[in-house]
Prior knowledge:
Elements: H1 3-9, H2 28-39, E1 42-45, H3 46-59, H4 71-81, E2 85-87, E3 95-98, H5 111-147
Antiparallel strand pairs: 1-3, 2-3
Helix pairs in contact: 1-2, 2-3, 2-4
Amino acid sequence: MNPILDGYKEGIDNMDRNYKYKGARLKPKIAKAIILELFAGKTASRREIDERVIQYHQSYGGLPSIAKTNPIKAALRYLKDRGFSENISSGSGSTWRIFEIPKPVSEPSNAQELVGLIKSEIQYLTKQIESFERRISELEATLIKSSR
């Protein structure tokens, strides 16, 4: 029993009867659960992962994402950072291996690697914050427009 994996799969059980994410927009948390359900122990192209996750979510009543950032890409990065996946190729035709049990994530072996890791995380989080700020601005504009 794996508490991390169980948490991701929480909304997936008994999908045909009661999909936990019915009516919900596709977000990284939901994408993580579906990726682990469909691909644990398998290797697949990023395109296949994208297509199957979207199809799976929407076929059970989930709604498409409206986020500026791809929730599946964010989910794969999160899973990679926690040892649940690895990108075994690069580029637009990337291939991912999804693990049933997380493999140990290597720790930075020196200060330079640690600095690189921190910079990478800051860059990722900065993009996320910018995306959220744009979305907030869009929502505020919509609210102002609709209140007139």
